[in-house]
Write a structure and sequence with these properties.
This protein is of the alpha/beta class. It is built from 5 helices and 5 strands. Helix content is 31%, strand content 20%.
């Protein structure tokens, strides 16, 4: 989900040979070494990570920051810090986020939210997009 609505997700965590993969931060070096031509690499980052210790260069196309609970805002700070460091790739919220937090996530530098079909039943896309208009700067 991004600011325009649902979008296809090319990244997978299941197939290391796929054209776009997400790996745990601890496996990044291995994934970069095994990268096939044109393969895009993303990393899963816990919300306890120190953003200034995270790799922001070197072919990392996506950073998925974990949001394990709705009330835990550390991921917002990580996203903001990564953008301040100059990270230009895709920043993704992964985990628990409420539609009301969507606009703030975008303001912190995130590009998209990873959202599964079960959550879309409870919180339809219209609710997420409507929440963008409820927040003003």
């Amino acid at each position: 989900l991004d600011r325009t609505g649902l979008k296809p997700d090319d990244f997978t965590r299941d197939d290391p040979a796929a054209p776009a993969i997400i790996v745990p931060l601890a496996l990044l070096d291995e994934a970069l070494s095994a990268r096939t031509s044109g393969q895009r690499i993303g990393i899963d980052v816990p919300n306890t990570a120190v953003p200034y210790d995270l790799p922001t260069q070197g072919g990392i196309d996506l950073i998925a920051v974990a949001f394990p609970k709705f009330g835990d805002g550390r991921g917002f700070s990580i996203g903001h810090a990564l953008r301040e460091q100059g990270y230009k790739g895709t920043l993704r919220v992964s985990g628990a986020l409420l539609p009301d937090q969507f606009a703030f996530a975008l303001q912190c530098g995130f590009d998209e939210v990873e959202i599964d079909a079960d959550r879309l039943v409870r919180q339809p896309i219209e609710q997420w997009l409507a929440a963008l208009g409820d927040v003003t700067r």
